[in-house]
Amino acid sequence: MESVSIRDVSLNFGAVRVLENLNLDVMKGEFLVLLGPSGCGKSTLLNCIAGLLDVSDGQIFINGRNVTWEQPKDRGIGMVFQSYALYPQMTVEGNLSFGLKNQGMPRAEIQKRVKRAAGILQIDNLLHRKPAQLSGGQRQRVAIGRALVRDADVFLFDEPLSNLDAKLRSELRVEIKRLHQQLENTTMIYVTHDQIEAMTLADRIAIMRGGAIQQLADPATIYNRPVNKYVAGFIGSPGINFIDGTVETDGAPAFRTDETEINLERYEFSDGMPAAGAAIFGIRPEHIASGKAAADQPIRAEVVVDVIEPMGADTLVWSKLGGQEIRFRVDGQTSLKKGNHVPIGFDPARASIFSSETEMRL
């Protein structure tokens, strides 16, 4: 059953079209992440769902009810913003209960909801503190708790972790995932530009660009079978390697550059073998084997080390293949140095090929 349905939604700011004929179904209990760079329309879409922005066209349904023109307070949602937006003069308990008091909810029910939210978020011991006495991570937990006490069916998160340092972001990612697991049948829609947050939190990811959804799928599909070059380049850290060349179909099908040939006989194409022409070959750094392991791969070459980037658990090596820049991962304890020759190899079945003209996956 759909928890949130978006039907042909468009939004214009004057002559600028921010969202265009967008359709999206979010299933009940699903954790959906809207992912994309600044200006792609992800926060705008979230604000339309929340009722903070009026759509120019289309309809929005929550639990089967048309809420397109309803006020935010009537939509049955809880929202967590990038800024904590806590009342500085109130205690944590006061911040959690303020909205419920304004609704005229009985005192006993307010106390029950505040206690439950505080327990889930592990802020029981902070209820009598004020925001100035809290760390950034604790303040964000309170902000999440303020949405949680509403007992909403749909929770909306607008980049809630972007103000925190890396360690706190990692810790709160786990807490948000645990929260979703505890709140069965609760739908969460989460906006971020951080692909790590998206990959670790989401049941499905909607990657956005220019007010449209480029691909909607589970994280594994997004990572392994990106629908176009844009999605492939946006997901993955470090980013995917792109090699420009041509697909040739005379004789055995192959992808060729001036110095490299990759046999494509084992490759599965979406719509059969594509026509010959310019194409882009994409292979992720972690899918390239090096050293002795390269000998077991169908495609092999020897490259010269150009730059080495130690990253702790592993090391990123920059080199060139067919005259084009390529990166691959090696063990963090590698003894490789600039100028070393190293064998590399990969399986083209783990790669992606895109049309140079349309940039769509072939």
Short description:
The chain is of the alpha+beta class. It has 2 domains: 2-234, 3-Layer(aba) Sandwich (Rossmann fold), CATH 3.40.50.300; 241-293 and 301-355, OB fold (Dihydrolipoamide Acetyltransferase, E2P), CATH 2.40.50. The protein is built from 8 helices and 21 strands.
Question: What features would you describe in this structure?
Answer:
Helices cover 23% and strands 34% of the residues. The chain is globular. The chain contains 8 helices and 21 strands. The model has no long low-confidence stretch (mean pLDDT 90). It starts with a strand and ends in a 7-residue tail after the last strand. The chain is of the alpha+beta class. The strands form 5 sheets. The chain has a 6-stranded mixed sheet, sandwiched between helices. It folds into 2 domains: 2-234, Rossmann fold (3-Layer(aba) Sandwich); 241-293 and 301-355, Nucleic acid-binding proteins (OB fold (Dihydrolipoamide Acetyltransferase, E2P), Beta Barrel). Helix 2 crosses helix 3 and helix 2 (92-102) runs parallel beside helix 4. It has helices at residues 42-50, 92-102, 107-121, 136-148, 166-182, 195-201, 219-224, 229-234; strands at 2-13, 16-27, 31-35, 57-62, 65-66, 77-80, 154-158, 187-192, 204-209, 212-217, 241-248, 254-256, 261-263, 277-283, 289-290, 299-304, 307-310, 314-321, 324-331, 341-346, 352-355. The longest helix has 17 residues, at 166-182.
